[in-house]
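Practice problem: predict the structure.
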Amino acid sequence: MEQIILKSPLDMHLHLRDGEILKSVVKYTAQSFSGALVMPNLNPPLLNVDSALAYQKRILEVCDDKSFNPMMSLYLTESLDRAELQKAKERGIRFIKLYPKGATTGSESGVSEVLNTKILEILEIAQELGLVLSIHGESNGFVLEREVEFHIIFAKLAQTFPHLKIIFEHLSDCRSIDLVEKYPNLYATLTLHHISLSLDDVIGGALNPHTFCKPILKTPKDRDALLQLALSAHKKFSFGSDSAPHLQTSKESAKGAAGIFSSPILLPALATLFDAHKRLENLEQFISGNAQRIYGIEEAKKQVVLVKKPMVVPQNIEGIVPLYAGKTLNWSLA
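Answer:
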């Protein structure tokens, strides 16, 4: 049976939630990835080192694979200061996450004005300490233009802090590619759903709340351009799933929570996609090598074996509808 071995896979954008949902979903990432960058937009958000480390402890307590490395991040607000950022670095927390206020789930405590004096002072300290800034890059404008409208912020930050590594999270619009390539300190993550789906998968037929996410899925042109970046393992782009579990009841409610739950099927789905385009040889670089180089992460000992064997994606997992529910993938975890 045909198989591939992936060394030290990394998911550089992950939502694990907390409480019962955390207990239900963490195993899917831990079995497939050596580590993951865990987002801090809980309720309440992770505003300081102590809360981030307490959350990390809760993750590890319910994780069967103790070799799994949940990398923590701090939620950027004006309350962060030099002492807290220094403490973060000393305790192994290297990431801060910027959410524009109101842009997505859990962004209620986010930054109202990114370029204000206090935020710029915090980022100056982050640059000095060698921390990494991850950004949900969207304005509050028209939904299909929000990412492009945020370009001016990315450009200003990249120019102002040339030694600060800045990550354009879950890039979704092909017009953003040139921006990432322009600035040496600007990088991006790509999700499985943005490289394989388009807005048609949300509203092209019957409304599908389980493919509703932020940033919203874009056009087939955008999808195809992003897919080519992934298939070629472009050196400035790494994999970040943005797997974001919501119970089926929350997704199908009147408000329709934003987020796609992909963690149970990520590696089989990526292998199926790369294989279909005859680019399997680039999969490890996309989900491992690029992240190691961009973020300065040491290669872990973990290896994941995939076999070319059909896998039917369940319709429901732990009360959550996963990405590709009911579909058959050509690859499975061994």
